[in-house]
Structure formats: C-alpha cells, structure tokens
C-alpha cells in the first residue's frame, strides 16, 4: 500500500512538472466563469451605515478603508525616517539637445548605524519656472530610460536580464537606453512638465529578502522580517516616493503642488498606494497595475490574490495571505482603494492583450469608485460599459484600454500628458 501511495505521488508531481495536471492552476480568462460577488459600496461603512456627504466620508469612511488596506493588504510603516542629507551629484543646463535641465540628486537616510541612499534623475523644461513633474520608478536603473550618457548607473542589486546585459545582479553600460520606449521624455518636456525617476531597487531590492533595503531600519530586537501587519515592498516603494516629495518641497525648480505619481505593473500598484497614503501627490496614474492595484480582486480573473502572494510574497503584508483563495471574504475591494484618492485625479489604464492584469476589473474599479468622486462634484466614469479600445475617458477619474500588451507606450503617455495638462495646468 505504501508503495502505491508513493507511486501516485510521484505521478502527480511528474504531471504537474510537465504541465499535464493544470486545471486547478490555470488562470481564468473566461468572463462566464467569474464568480458572482457583491461589490462593496464605498459609501457604506463596514457596520452598514451610509455615508451621504464629504464630511462623513473624510471623518469616518475614508479612515476606516485606509485602516483596512493598511493592516490587511499593503502593511503599515512601523516608524518615521526623514532625509538625513541630500546632494545634487550632477547637473547640466544643456540636456536633451538644450531644451532641458538635468539634475541627479542623492537622498541619504541614516538610522541606528545603517545608511541607505537613492538617486532621483530629474529633467526639467528650461522654459518653465517651478515646473509640474511626473514622478515614477523605473525597473532597471535611471540610465535605462534615456540614451543620455551622463546619467549615472546604479550599483544596487538588480534582477538578472541577460538581454539587457544584466548578469550577476549588476547593472551595466550595456543596458543604457534599453527602456527609452517606455518613457516619453521629450514629449513630457515639450508639454511643459518635468520628469523625475528613481530605480526602485535602490529603495528596496525586488526579492523575498527583507535583510536589505529600507525595512531593516525599523526592526526591533532580533526581528528578521516585517510583522504580519507591517509593510511589504509595495509600501516600501511608496515610502520612497513620499521621500522624493519631501525633497521636491525643498527644490525651487519643482512645483511640489503639481506632482503626478506614475507607475506601471507592480509599480502601478505602488503609485496607487503612494497616492492614497500621501495626499501631497496632485494626481495618480496606474498603468496595467492588475491584482493588488486597480483590478477588482473578487473577480478572480487572471492573476489572483493567491497567485500574487505565492509568486511575490514580499510585495504585500503577510495579512493579505488571509485572502488567498478567499477573495469573497474581503470586506473591501480595489475600487475603494481608488476612492481613497478622491477628490484628486486618478487615471487607470489597461491593455487589450494584458488579460493577466484583468482590464475589465481595472475599468470596473474606476467605475465603482465614481460615487465618492460624486460627493466632491468631480466627474468619474459615467457608465458600466467599457469604452472602445483606444478611446479614452478623460474625466477626473480617467480610463483607457489600448491595443497591445503589458507595457507603457507612446499612446499611453500621449493620454497622460493631455489629461494631466487638463487637470493640473488649466485650473
């Protein structure tokens, strides 16, 4: 009997390894298989009481939802740490063919014998004083977003990508400019905006290891990892964006009142959480952010809570695992995350081929967040019917779905620049 059990186990493991036993593990991409669920009303508190005005939302509704997401999804920051020093390590008044100023600024943080720094690459239009700015993280270093040979290459840990010349977890000259397609630097400058970007790995390396990055600065005694309700990497990266905002408040060349926080994929999840937790950000953009970002978790479409927590256990707080294959138990969903940004503008963008990120779930979040924006007289998404591909809805709550896959394209940036100009520049 024991031999039979062992043989069956071996066959199952072999079948899983070779992809023959895949039914349970295949993501759902079929709308007819989306489970029935009730969308939580952002204007109804957990005890059932209705919220009917801005004051009640700000005093009761928003704090309750913010507490839920903090303790159960992204994790709380267990302390405070400001900038110890900052230094402009390189600058030029003749960047991008002479139409922009370039500045590279190191922010340094020190606590209990530890030291961490990250570098902000900033391009500003020469013809605009006190410029509004798009702020966002990049995945492979500041030098990858431009062919500008003056941009410093980070020595921080990076995910290996041999096609970019990244091996042994080190960024190299070979990767300079490999992501220019994702950053419309010239178009941003021509529109009168600045661009600020940070390599996210300098704030917290993207790996399931909390011994480096910002987290250990807050450990007590022999702590090795954040507590169950303490921050994962997404909240750590959001913390870094807020520290960049601290710096902008000291930089006379940046309009700190008109900073648009932007992010793609996991960094889109980050931009949303940064926009929620730091109301200094004037507007928020989420590009293809999916599960744990803009997409409704209860739909269980594409990437699910269990999948993201199993594949990337460091992104969210440990408490989020309570909802693995248990999305129905969530008392709140991601549309209420978007609602926490109100009344500030928020843009959610999807891609037609990026079913893993659940475009319909992202759209529905924007739609179901709209009642909170209505409290402020701000225009959201008017209909539950998704817009046609490449036909943006550009209200205070904005949305588009474009052709193509999981990426940031020129079309995306064209919409973001137009929308940000309307929302922030034409006030």
From TrEMBL:
Membrane-crossing residue ranges in chain numbering: none
Pfam families reported in the protein's UniProt record: GCE_fung
Keyword Phosphoprotein: no
Matches recorded under InterPro entries: AB_hydrolase_fold, GCE-like_dom
Domain 4-O-methyl-glucuronoyl methylesterase-like per the UniProt entry, residue ranges: 229-377
UniProt KW keywords: Hydrolase, Serine esterase, Signal
Annotated protein name in UniProt: 4-O-methyl-glucuronoyl methylesterase-like domain-containing protein
GO molecular function: carboxylic ester hydrolase activity
